[in-house]
Amino acid sequence: MYLHIIDILIIATYIILVLGLGFYFAKAASKDLNAYFLGGNTLKWYMLGLSNASGMFDISGTMWTVSILFIYGLKSAWIPWLWPVWNQVFVFVYLAIWMRRSNVMTGAQWITFRFGDGKGSKLSHLIIVVFAIVSVLGFMAYFFEGIGKFCVLVLPWDMSVEALNLTSAHGYALVICGLTAFYTIKGGMYSVVFTEVLQFLIMTISCLAIGYIAFTSVTHEQIMAVVPSGWDNMWFGWNLDLDWSGTQYAAINERIASDGFGLFGILFMLMLFKGVFASIAGPVPSYDMQRILATRSPSDSAKMSILTIIVMYMPRYLMVSGFAVLGLVYLGPEITAMGSKIDFEQVLPMAIQKFVPVGMKGLLLAGLLAAFMGTFSAFINSAPAYIVNDIYKKYINPRADDKRYIRLSVYASLTLVAVGIVFGFFASSLNQLTLWITAALYGGYAAANALKWIWWRFTGYGYFYGMLFGLIASTVKLFVFPQYVDIFIFPVILAFSILGCVIGTYLHPVEDMDAVKEFYRRTRPWGFWGPVKEAVMKENPAFIPNQDFGKDTLNIIIGVVWQMAQVVIPIYFMIQDNTNIVIWCGVFILTSYLLKKLWWDKLGDVENL
Q1: What is the CATH number of the domain that holds 392?
Q2: Considering all CA atoms of the chain, what is the largest pairwise distance in Å, rounded to the nearest integer?
Q3: Taking Cα atoms as reference points, which of 207, 193, 155 lies closest to residue 374?
Q4: Domain total for the chain?
Q5: Whose CA is closest to 485, among 259, 269, 315, 312?
Q6: Which domain holds residue 225?
Q7: Within its chain, how far is the Cα of 510 from the centroid?
């Protein structure tokens, strides 16, 4: 792609700014581990919310989302339920509050808070550290693959090195990952948050610009002329019923078959089944959890989590739908020229190359680089905390000075980035990586982490064996049964993990009942806590148990609909379906009002407990 000097200068200015922020915050970040990994719990909730939104706006995910909207149309709004995306609703409604009450630094440290300090707790502590590192490495490989594929199509320079058998895509990925690692390691959490706020602003401007270009370049009639019947309908039956035969994109039928999404009704039920377990389990031990633990108070953690949804979905889907419709209407020759090896993840970079003007192209590329760098930096900053705080400080050298801990954090970050990049060289498909991470790997996480919140008898041994069985099952799925669609294997992985939870729990009695009572007293979860609740109330008759299960459930249902409205409104806007725009805007306004009355206005009560 040809880049004008103006575009190059815009990209260079952005890179200089983020590197400068890393140097600027280096001194504040080096104070101690809490400052380095959590910003000293001094950052405003809205800054953390913007940072969290930037971290979730990754370029690999954006390319994937453009491709599934291109292929599945409005029905693609359901496919991110594979994660599920609405786990964020569970987080802002109640989980962020529960988690922030712990006053810990990492998810692994939280395990000690939950189970105490016995042998079972130590085993569960170690297994969550392993899970955190494995999942971060998986995501780093995913990001490495995505940024390389994107850059080789939109940047003009040849970055290949024949002597090292290094492709241009890998060369770009190495350079950008290196720059991101540099400013992140230099400035810690402060650097991550402030650069991500800058990145969020750039990305939002870029989203609005792409939305304007697409909306003024494509008509409803042009879109409907190139898509099959049902593409613009988000509702579905037992089957997908989306047939691209007879269109210029007939090869899409092969992609749908390979994805295994033809029986969409079964897929939806499995996504819903998996989603409830995964959402109750709470955030995985990565940057999202880190932002929660970095807030000033429990109510701030809830506000931070809902802000992430408010500021992210509509701008992102305006960009996604803009690129998708531009690709559908104008990129037919380029896409069909790929023959049997059509790569729909290239729709986004090809659309940039063809439609974005000088100046705006530089801003957009800076924004998309920011999307990658923001997410990658969030993982770089969160994962080393598990190595330094949860292994080295806890088991090896608990009395080292802060300089040693910070120095080791730097080494840990560099090591994880290097290993993640090595994995990235072997990542063959964004879609394959996405499905494995969301369906198989997280399938092994769901059972143990759901039970830890709601069942008093669940022990550290149960957590350890549940996580271990889940990791084994998801790894076997990846290497032994790669031909099966991951989401369809989720119930098997979940059942295997639950078996490990039950076996481990009943192998030993509760090791540290005092720790369990303290967890219940401070966190105040709802669930199956009968004996613990009685013991706590006997010691303190003034203690008020959590009776908000019904209210939280209602708010979650409202929140899921509210979030879905933010996904489909930009898509309907872009395809100029005015009837559905009005309907879903009404849904969004109503659900916003209900959340304001039933949830936001009640947050003040959280701090009074």
Answers
A1: 1.20.1730
A2: 74
A3: 193
A4: 1
A5: 259
A6: 5-441+547-604
A7: 34
Contact between 484 and 495 (Cβ < 8 Å): no
Contact (Cβ atoms closer than 8 angstroms) between residue 109 and residue 121: no
Tokens 């000088």 belong to 358
Whether 465 is in a domain gets the answer: no
Q: What is the CA radius of gyration of the chain?
A: 24
Q: How far is C-alpha 33 from the geometric centre of its chain's CA atoms?
A: 24
Identify the CA nearest to 408 among candidates 379, 385, 378, 380. Answer: 385
Compare 149 and 69 and report the one with higher pLDDT.
69
Residue 498 lies in a domain: no
- On the 0-12 / 13-18 / 19+ scale of CB atoms within 10 A, 220 is middle
Q: pTM surpassing 0.90?
A: no
The DSSP annotation for 434-500 comes to HHIIIIIITHHHHHHHHHHHHBTT--HHHHHHHHHHHHHHHHHHHHH-TTS-HHHHHHHHHHHHHHH
Burial of 333 (C-beta count, 10 Å sphere; 0-12/13-18/19+): exposed
State yes or no: pLDDT of 585 exceeds 70. Answer: yes
Q: Would you say 131 and 383 are in contact if contact means Cβ atoms under 8 Å apart?
A: no
| Cβ proximity of 367 and 7 under 8 Å | no
Structure tokens at 478: 């990846």
* pLDDT mean across residues, the chain: 83
Task: Give a yes or no: residue 277 inside a domain.
Answer: yes
458 within domain boundaries: no
Residue 22: pLDDT band (50, 70, 90) is: low
Contact call for residues 573 and 215 (beta carbons, < 8 A)? yes
